[in-house]
Here is the input.
Amino acid sequence: MKKTIYLLLLLSLLVLFPSFSTDNRIQAETGEFERVIITFHDKIYDHILIEGNGEIHHRFPSISAVAASIPSDYLSTLQHHPRIKSVEVDKQVSVTQTIDWGVHRTNAPQVWKNSVTGKGVKVALIDTGIAKNHPDLKIADAVAFTNYTTDYNDDNGHGTHVAGIVAAQNNDIGTAGMAPDIDLYIAKALDQEGNGYHSDLVRAIEWAINKDVDIINLSAGGIEGSLLLKAAIDQAYNKGVLIVAAAGNSGQAVEYPAAYSNVIAVAAVDQRDRRTNFSAIGKEVEVSAPGVAIYSTYLRNSYKSMSGTSMAAPHVTGMLALLKQARPGIAHTDLRELLHKHTFDLGETGKDELYGYGRIEVPQDLKVEKAPPSPPTSVQATMIDNKTDSKLQVQLTWKASESVTGIESYQLYRNGEWIAKVGNQTFTYIDIVDEGTYSYEIIAIDRDKQESNRSQPIKIEVKRDTKIDVIVDDPILLHSFKDVTKTDWFAPHVDYLTKTNIIGGYEDGTFQPNNEVTRAEAITMIGRHLGINGARRATDYSDVSSSHFASGFIQSAQEQNLLAGYKDGTFRPNRYVTRGELAVLFVRAFSLNKAATITFSDVSPTYYAHGAIQRLVGENITAGYPDGTFKPNQPVTRAEFSVLLTRAINDQFKLK
Here is the structure.
């Protein structure tokens, strides 16, 4: 087999020792001071410093010197004083984190404060491996594809340096990469000399595809291409993976794989935004990035500076990770165009062969946009027979959509035309149709009014002689509770809430409809419908521990101002909910606005829940009792709560 050498695209290694800060000024109430070291010709003269309001921190009598803080405007006097030999800045030695100039130049640190750090984005680095135990690097998964070792540990240093530019942790040590919170996947495909085979790169690309990564970084290149390598890159790109590669260090034509159209070729610039003399040239150059004296992680838990287009490429990979996190629903092709847009134009106006679209620059106002909801899944359409002769019926069913903020409703379409809107806890709909062929699609709408894409179309041919899939004698498919019969006045409501997973029975198979509902139970059932976070956790209430079954719903409801506790800092989760309290809770939870003007003999206009009760009546959720009372202080039973809650969330159950 012919061995194609992949030379690591770097030029030089500059060892850096712990950094020295050049900003030694400290702030005092009287103005700016400089911390300095003052050396005298023969002995220390305190009065010279005291006259200028200086402060001595330490004396070095053996060498006639002091460490002191001096007002900035007095330094010139000291420097020209005949008794003083020298005045030098008391430089500060630091072993804390130093963010490299390249990362700073791209504006990446500016968006970290917006929580844009690459979190959730999966990036694969195909290189010489990675230093396994480096304290500044965190690895999600790693593998080796070289023929001499199965160990992915870096025995060259190049891969570790590239990894740090992309993903060094923002942890107060060493340095920080462009996107410190990405999920980092490592494929060692180059050996200790930085060389490798096309076939090993392809194996690494296939592995990255199987890991469902978003971006692949290839800081390696050669003057020859490969049909196999191009096919692997095209496959990755067609699956939505962006590939970033170093353009090359020959100063001439762009090397492979960067030269392929489905790869983002990156050129290098220096601290003055000038193209380096080693950076490749060509129409394939897409963008440029910092690539000179880049400080990053290295072997044996150390740090080094390196130069090359190998260092420029991971800056672009990191920026793409930031953009990907901020625009979670964006297609990879659109993400690539977004990269072009956020560049600082260099050289000729527009795209050119030296800088591409320009040096990358993260927009400082970049923030994470909430992804739209996902479309409903498992959509099914079946014919049903409810003994109606004039029309035929199609029953649609689907599984819930996912959304960060929760789903508000579902919109149903038949043959591209809207037919119905149903609530967020409804996953079935019966469509009355004539004979014919129908295609159904469903979209989800979240509470921010964002729409999902349409679900995959489901087609059905409706004929009278078609075998019926489902026979429905009664629209209520009653769930089995020992103490709930089909004729109970609350049975349809209990069934609806059970089917939508809002309520459940007891372990003995009963529903216990006459039990009174507690505050914890009420907010749990409402919270399930609203889709708020119900995960158990610490609360702001002294009597609701993190282990309480309703702690998550109670805390989420408190944060969303759906309820309030008592003045003593308690929630009293086991206290029964009254009808008046329930009215207030419903108004807040479901934004009830339509108010009635009805008068109840036992509800004074000054009663705290008076307005909420009027809204419950105005929204056709209740009409009170036949004797003209509302009984606001009466506890609510499970049966009554089921009826009122069902009417509040599903218009089909409301009073006529």
Q: What stands out?
A: The two ends are 82 Å apart (CA to CA). DSSP finds 15 helices and 29 strands in the chain. Residues 1-31, 468-478 have pLDDT under 50 and may be disordered.
